[in-house]
């Protein structure tokens, strides 16, 4: 055992701050480190006083507190740790690990214990670590024998960087293929399974035969089926909107409850921020995350960047982010998707909970605490809570207004409605908060699914977990540029198609795992919408032909009761869908959007255009990720300028 | 390696909601089934006597198009899918009996939730079931049923706006208003003031013009949608749209000042229960968080409007309709209000009086054939009971 560890005993903390010196060696170590830092004038006495008070409130180690508050650079701090231990400090980027000493099987131990076998020096194994804890010593004794190793100290960032370098191929492979290897039937790596391909071929053949043998009869049957799907979709949406409109449907976590939470009771929270070529919005992100009401020492922010995206990596470095921020470089590989990047980053996460934010997200400050409260007060099966999403630039143009109405309906009405009905909830792209252990257990995100969030919601339900919706909002930038909107929407629709196809590979198994109600909801919330968007233009054309000409007689196509149902869908159904869209503005008191909401049918036309693009892509390029460009809004630009001004 | 494991769950999310009692408790079920059996039996006789067939024939003859009773027309259209007139009558009667049976069960459930004793709740349900006017409406004068449904739905909707005030209550209120359009041209007129009142129920409407406009739209849009639906179906049925409009023009263009004293007297005699909501408005100590005046006033105000309107506009509405509307609105109100004991006792007393009066003061609805049909059922049953 290294002598230096035994040598370190309790050290008095500075008297001026008025706390009793802690007796545990690890705690005493950080006391000694901070004293050394003060001596070296790398830490101000007043900052230490603040840090000690915070440490007491937050219940974190002094190291995490001092670094989290940005009082000391991590590198300086761990140099001091090495000095106190009287062991060498190594910078792993300059003196990297001997890769032959590491084992991929022990990768999770390295991450958990913050350790790496560094090199052999004079026949003794040197372990690089950030802190020599009893757990680490036990682990090292078991593996290498008590007298065969010694320690060097490095920084957490060096460990992170070196681990990612060492296991780059493995981690990348894991991020891409873990789910497919574990449960190939849940992966969208192949769009259609073999049996699905046969089923599609048989159905297409039968349809072609029917159209040849009895074209009119077949058309009548098809229209009857379409009409019924439309009617059920409308009724289901009505039920969800109505139920979701109730105050009772909202999982309300009161400000008093948030205030009552003791910081010391909060766990470590990991925040993943996957980005690609978004250097310009980085200042916004850092401002938002710094604004979170959560102890800095318990926040682990990981900027998940593609390693080829040097522009964003350099911009992130230039911002001199606090020690709680880390950069994860995702190796280049296909598919180049957000879920793959998140899966990669997941291997470096240490929080009890993990959430995802987009680069331009502005979460309400209390969101993490609300999520913790929701988890703590719900049963064990609650695996995820979804924050509500909305937009900060709703008034920018017609498209952003429509988008805001749509999001308001989705997150304020439909998802709480699904939650109330206890059926699978397709998660939104960001602000979904997970129990990290459960997320890993269910195979994390499907890197081949372009709406991995929606898919994950269904998979969680299949594994017996539940999802809740909390009353905390993340404000995002609404896509107000039409071509960009079409791109984004086509990806979402394609993802819903993928999700439906993936989970319909074993429909009976799906039905058994999520129940009849869940099965119904899955079809009419995830399966039917893309289908109706594809179908809508055909029905619009028929309607226009009927209205604008007198030569077309389509009455035969809709025998009763389908004629009545079709008319109901056309007039009452569609108009009520507009109505639901309009009332969506009420929960947030966006009264200015109500009159504009009358134009929602025009917005539906855009949906159909995007649906056809999605359908085409599903066939020719299913895993292609249509990147949404952020930072285009004038509101974002203005805020960005304000933030830059404050940084100066 | 969490450096701060949570040792105990942190405080409260929100106070746990009091678990709601299930709707289908045995007592609720018994009440609903009893009502269903009794009404089905009655319906059987009425069908035999040809009452409903007369209703169907009148509607098939285009009465709804002439009088604006669209909801009746919709129900009839569904029933008309059956080929045989006899079957249509049976289904219509069973439909009315089933819906009423369920509603009686729900009423009992709601009364119990609002602090009524078992006995009190049963008496209210029983007196409603034995009210001659209600029975007559259900079996022999079914064309006014949409109007009663509209009022019965409107009272809880107004109450929800006052009490809860969430988006769901705004939607509910908006969705109930089309029932007034579907019931008759006379009730259609109520939509305008109710829409404005509904918009003003939102406190933001008093401060922000945009909020007022928004809430106005939220309240009125369902009515406009349903109106579009009516027009759409009329077009599909190749009906002349002017025929639909003429119903309203005929109603509103021929305003006359009639003698409303008879109608008011009928309200007093047939439905003295209107006294209870008025007393509620001034009662000193109520077992509620606050006083919900508007829904209480609507219980009396809406039937009062009907009583006056049937003398002002040309209408086929019979004299019994406003008092029955008051009883219906009152019972609907009872299902959402929590009353002190004295007002509950008064409600029971007045409901009993109302039921008794309905059989004694028969001037408004006297129908000897219907009574004979009823007695034809009652006599053997009574004989069987008497041995």
UniProtKB/TrEMBL annotation, chain A:
Domain of life: Bacteria
Transmembrane segments: 198-214, 220-243, 519-547, 567-586, 593-615
Keywords: Glycosyltransferase, Membrane, Transferase, Transmembrane, Transmembrane helix
Single GO MF descriptor: glycosyltransferase activity
Domain Type II secretion system protein GspE N-terminal residues, every copy: 85-168
Residue ranges of domain Glycosyltransferase 2-like in the record: 354-548
Keyword Transferase: yes
UniProt cross-references to Pfam families, sorted A to Z: Glyco_trans_2_3, MshEN
UniProt-listed InterPro entries: Glyco_trans_2-like (IPR001173), Nucleotide-diphossugar_trans (IPR029044), T2SS_E_N_sf (IPR037257), T2SS_GspE_N (IPR007831)
PANTHER family (alphabetical): POLY-BETA-1,6-N-ACETYL-D-GLUCOSAMINE SYNTHASE (PTHR43630:SF1)
Family: Belongs to the glycosyltransferase 2 family.
UniProt name for this protein: Glycosyltransferase, catalytic subunit of cellulose synthase and poly-beta-1,6-N-acetylglucosamine synthase
Organism: Devosia enhydra
Taxonomic path: Bacteria, Pseudomonadati, Pseudomonadota, Alphaproteobacteria, Hyphomicrobiales
Automatic annotation (TrEMBL), chain B:
Transmembrane feature ranges: 27-47, 87-107, 113-132, 144-161, 173-200, 212-235, 260-280, 292-309, 315-334, 341-361
Keywords carried by this UniProt record: Membrane, Transmembrane, Transmembrane helix
Keyword Membrane among record annotations: yes
Domain of life of the organism encoding this protein: Bacteria
Keyword Membrane: yes
Name of the protein described by the UniProt record: DUF2029 domain-containing protein
Species this protein is from: Devosia enhydra
């Amino acid at each position: 055992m290294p002598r230096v560890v035994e040598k370190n005993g309790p050290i008095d903390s500075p008297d001026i701050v008025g706390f009793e010196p802690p007796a545990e060696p690890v705690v005493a170590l950080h006391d000694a480190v901070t004293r050394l830092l003060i001596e070296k004038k790398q830490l101000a006495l007043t900052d230490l006083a603040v840090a000690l008070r915070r440490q007491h409130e937050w219940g974190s180690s002094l190291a995490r507190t001092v670094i989290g508050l940005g009082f000391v650079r991590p590198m300086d701090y761990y140099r001091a740790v090495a000095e106190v231990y009287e062991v060498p400090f190594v910078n792993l980027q300059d003196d990297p690990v001997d890769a032959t000493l590491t084992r991929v099987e022990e990768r999770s131990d390295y991450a958990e214990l913050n350790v790496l076998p560094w090199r052999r020096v004079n026949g003794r194994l040197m372990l690089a670590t950030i802190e020599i804890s009893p757990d680490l010593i036990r682990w090292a004794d078991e593996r290498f024998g008590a007298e065969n190793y010694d320690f060097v100290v490095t920084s957490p960032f060096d460990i992170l960087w070196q681990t990612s370098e060492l296991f780059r191929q493995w981690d990348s492979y894991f991020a891409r293929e873990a789910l497919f290897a574990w449960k190939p039937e849940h992966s969208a790596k192949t769009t259609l399974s073999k049996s699905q391909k046969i089923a599609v071929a048989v159905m297409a053949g039968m349809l072609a035969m029917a159209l040849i043998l009895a074209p009119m009869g077949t058309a009548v049957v098809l229209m009857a089926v379409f009409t019924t799907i439309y009617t059920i979709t409308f009724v289901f949406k009505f039920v969800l909107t109505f139920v979701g409109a109730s105050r009772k449907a909202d999982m309300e976590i009161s400000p008093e409850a948030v205030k009552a939470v003791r910081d010391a009771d909060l766990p470590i929270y990991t925040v993943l921020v996957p980005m690609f070529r978004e250097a310009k919005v980085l200042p916004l992100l850092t401002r938002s995350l710094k604004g979170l009401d959560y102890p800095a020492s318990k926040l682990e922010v990981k900027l998940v960047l593609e390693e080829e995206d040097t522009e964003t990596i350099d911009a992130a470095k230039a911002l001199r982010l606090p020690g709680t921020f880390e950069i994860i470089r995702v190796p280049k590989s296909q598919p180049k998707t957000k879920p793959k990047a998140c899966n990669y980053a997941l291997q470096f996460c240490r929080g009890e909970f993990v959430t995802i934010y987009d680069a331009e997200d502005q979460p309400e400050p209390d969101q993490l605490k609300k999520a913790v409260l929701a988890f703590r007060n719900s049963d064990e099966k609650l695996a995820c809570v979804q924050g509500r999403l909305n937009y900060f630039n709703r008034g920018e143009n017609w498209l952003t207004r429509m988008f805001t109405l749509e999001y308001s309906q989705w997150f304020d009405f439909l998802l709480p409605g699904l939650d109330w009905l206890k059926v699978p909830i397709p998660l939104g792209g960001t602000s979904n908060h997970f129990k990290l252990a459960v997320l890993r257990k269910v195979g994390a995100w499907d890197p081949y699914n372009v709406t991995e969030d929606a898919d994950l919601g269904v998979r969680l339900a299949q594994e017996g977990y539940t999802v809740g919706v909390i009353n905390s909002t993340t404000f995002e930038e609404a896509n107000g540029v039409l071509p960009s909107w079409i791109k984004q929407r086509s990806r979402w629709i394609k993802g819903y198609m993928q999700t439906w196809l993936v989970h319909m590979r074993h429909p009976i198994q799906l039905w058994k795992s999520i129940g009849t109600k869940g099965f119904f909801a899955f079809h009419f919330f995830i399966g039917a919408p893309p289908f109706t968007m594809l179908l809508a233009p055909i029905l619009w054309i028929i309607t226009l032909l009927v209205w604008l000409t007198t030569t077309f007689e389509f009455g035969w196509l809709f025998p009763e009761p389908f004629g009545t149902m079709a008319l109901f869908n056309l007039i009452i159904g569609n108009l009520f869908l507009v109505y639901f869209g309009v009332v969506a503005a009420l929960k947030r008191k966006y009264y200015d959007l109500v009159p504009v909401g009358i134009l929602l049918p025009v917005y539906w036309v855009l949906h159909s255009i995007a649906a056809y693009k999605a359908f085409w892509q599903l066939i020719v390029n299913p895993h292609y990720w249509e990147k949404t460009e952020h930072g285009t809004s004038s509101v974002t630009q203005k805020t960005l300028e304000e933030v830059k001004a404050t940084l100066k | 390696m969490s450096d701060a494991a949570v040792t105990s769950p942190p405080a409260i999310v929100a106070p746990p909601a009091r678990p709601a009692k299930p709707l289908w408790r045995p007592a609720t079920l018994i009440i609903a089934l009893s009502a269903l059996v009794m009404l089905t039996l009655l319906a059987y006789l009425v069908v035999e006597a040809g009452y409903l067939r007369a209703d169907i024939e009148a509607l098939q003859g285009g009465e709804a198009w002439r009088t604006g009773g669209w909801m009746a027309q919709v129900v009839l259209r569904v029933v008309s899918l059956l080929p045989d007139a006899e079957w249509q009558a049976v289904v219509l009667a069973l439909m009315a009996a089933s819906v009423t049976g369920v509603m009686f069960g729900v009423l009992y459930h709601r009364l119990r939730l609002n602090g009524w004793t078992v006995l009190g709740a049963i008496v209210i349900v029983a007196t409603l079931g034995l009210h001659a006017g209600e029975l007559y409406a259900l079996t022999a004068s079914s064309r006014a049923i949409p109007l009663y449904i509209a009022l019965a739905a409107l009272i809880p909707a107004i109450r929800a706006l006052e009490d809860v005030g969430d988006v769901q209550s705004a939607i509910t209120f908006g969705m109930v208003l089309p029932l007034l359009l579907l019931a008759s041209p006379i009730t259609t007129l109520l939509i305008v003031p109710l829409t404005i009142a509904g918009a003003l129920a939102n406190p933001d409407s008093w401060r922000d013009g945009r909020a007022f406009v928004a809430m106005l739209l939220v309240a009125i849009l369902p009515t406009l949608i349903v109106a579009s639906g009516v027009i759409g179906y009329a077009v599909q049925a190749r009906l002349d749209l002017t025929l639909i409009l003429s119903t309203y023009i005929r109603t509103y263009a021929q305003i006359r000042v009639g003698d409303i004293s008879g109608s008011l007297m009928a309200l007093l005699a047939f439905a003295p229960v209107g006294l209870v909501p008025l007393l509620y408005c001034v009662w000193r100590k109520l077992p509620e968080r606050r006083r919900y005046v508007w829904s209480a006033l609507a219980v009396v105000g809406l039937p009062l409007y009907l009583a006056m309107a049937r003398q002002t506009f040309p209408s086929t509405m019979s004299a019994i309709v406003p008092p029955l509307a008051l009883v219906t609105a009152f019972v609907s109100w009872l299902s959402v209000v929590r009353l002190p004991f004295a007002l509950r006792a008064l409600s029971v007393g007045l409901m009993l009086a109302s039921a008794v009066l309905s059989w004694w003061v028969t001037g408004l609805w006297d129908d000897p054939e219907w009574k004979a049909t009823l007695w034809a059922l009652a006599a053997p049953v009574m004989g069987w009971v008497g041995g």
